[in-house]
């Protein structure tokens, strides 16, 4: 497996020429890098006007590896070839290096670039990327990989310190300014070497889409805390710099920084909507211990979920019902000693049964989601106020009054569902959970709830029985005495409702709650459909004028499906609705419609106008089809049958896992379609940059896809669709 590394942009607040003078002091050897033993110049060439200077060195490294491994390998030192190309005119230095030792077994490739800061020509930027591919190494591939990554991470961390050390050394010697290169006026006819083309930064992960953009973000690292001009949202055109990461995201190791940058870059290249905030991406990486593949999977699922339920607009659109305002015993209350927002929940005083009976699970879930969204907003505010990264909050749960009434089965079921949704979509947002005055019934509730809580989250729980929270190691260790609520023995008034029993006159019937749940579920322009094995979902679109454009945007919420587009000159019979009950499944807002009669023959009664497209769970697909004939078009979402392995009769591991994920042979899609006149479609295309003519279907894991951008993917092709995988 190829290991990739991508650094953030590191900024030296010194002119490029001074940084280059400091960099040259690292050669032929550098005492600050013990493993860098020596270097020899293999070749050197400079243009006649001195604008470009290329030098190739052979560097000798003493790698810190076990002696036994060195003896097996038969080497004491490792040699690298490094080629530096300095362009004084453009004020850039490009560095390319690769290993000479064991080059047939191990491939190490590194690219570095020093350049002038795009917004301050007196500053210098540094960027690097690298890849490691171990093909074979005497059976010690894993050990060599760990050693290489450890050594590389260590050298990255020291890199900036070494340059800054030599910059201070120059300053102590009185060298504080080096003039810029200027062309020689005495030799106007001098022929200079052609400028070396800029080395592309190695993409952090192989993606078959457009190349990563190379522009640098306009993050002002000198802006004071609280400045509203500091960007907190990632954009497709920016890169992360090291100072920004430290200020807003915290101290990350070089490899953690690399994971963040690579995942962020992947989103920039595949997403059709806005890029999630850097803090949001980082939370998912932390939740999976910076395993990029696992983090990417759960992040894509969460983004699809956010789009489906329009969670990004929840704070603006959700109006808390009066019954929640009166009887939901929770609210925000100042912050803890670490600057984290503090949320207090008096669970023991809450009538969970009454709230569920009066509101239903869906409204209660929406309210909890709005609390989490507000928590994210408060974390951003506190990051500005306190001048340090704050990415999570503290929750204080008071259990005084908790009894068997709170173990009402539907109430516990609603609680478990809420926990499941929050765990999946708001990872690493809980910094600490303080549970106070836990009664004897609490172990029963904990036994029911704890299996649904992530192990890392459970480690953040602190439980106090009785009045233990008032002593040493209690509440005062985490919350300032001045803001401890009055009902916990403090002096601060807390504006959280006291709760009480919800009047039964406010209860609603199951039918009323079911209708309300459906209304909340379908509060979107998208429709939801279920797809079963042997029962695809089909949508009929009648086209009167040829050259009309059918556009679509759908998310695969569960399972894998195959998307098809068919054309027929005659109308199909009235649709058959496959009731979900026939499959033993109920789903609010879901439906299954079949249009193509079993007696129809492909090629006679109807024809396929696009190649079938296999879409994986979590993918978001946008596209358009320019119709060639009038008639009836059928969009079909069909259950994807896993192909059998050709080489053996035994099932593949991936096939087995995929089968397990699609329980009961059911898939689910959420879709939106629209038909545009040809003229309207061309006008829409003029509003965005043309993406060229495309006749192939591609695909996307994004969840923030926007139809308006996707439907501009072609201008002349008769049938074109666009997805970004």
TrEMBL record:
GO terms for molecular function: RIG-I binding. This is SEC14 like lipid binding 1. InterPro entries: CRAL-TRIO_dom (IPR001251), CRAL-TRIO_dom_sf (IPR036865), CRAL/TRIO_N_dom (IPR011074), CRAL/TRIO_N_dom_sf (IPR036273), GOLD_dom (IPR009038), GOLD_dom_sf (IPR036598), PRELI/MSF1_dom (IPR006797), SEC14/CRAL-TRIO_domain (IPR051064). Residues 210-238 are annotated as: Disordered. Residues 212-232 have a biased composition (Polar residues). Gene3D superfamilies: CRAL-TRIO lipid binding domain, GOLD domain. Residues 3-175 form the PRELI/MSF1 domain. The lineage of its organism: Eukaryota, Metazoa, Chordata, Craniata, Vertebrata. One of its GO terms (biological process) is negative regulation of RIG-I signaling pathway. GO terms for cellular component: cytosol. Residues 522-675 form the GOLD domain. It comes from the Eukaryota. Residues 320-496 form the CRAL-TRIO domain.
